[in-house]
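input
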Amino acid sequence: MTVLQALAGLVFVVALLIRASQLDLGSAGSLSRSSTYGEAGYFGIISLGVLAAGIGLLRSKHWARTPVLLLQLLLLGVSWYAMGPSDSPLVAFAFAVPAVFVLWCLFNRAGRNWWTGSVTAAREDRETR
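output
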């Protein structure tokens, strides 16, 4: 699920790059082409980090659990803000459901056993070489 969240972020980056390449940015205020490229770069770096953590989690890397956990907690905060001050329950639902699902997978017994079992199997494989 975290890999899908990273891919959604990368799609957003592509949309920003397409928007920045248009002749008329079509917005109110002082949005410039360079600030749009900067925003795309920032979200690109963040999305690649999330993608790395998601792939690491799928490969049962020990370091990947904490970044994935923190990302899901941040997404829950975003959904809380979307539900409350922004009054956008559909956006809140779209952010909260995947975050709660990933947190559930990280903390339930089957998920922990899968992760620790694959780490143990990798250790045993290294020791037999």
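quick obs: Residues 7 and 26 are 26 Å apart (CA to CA).
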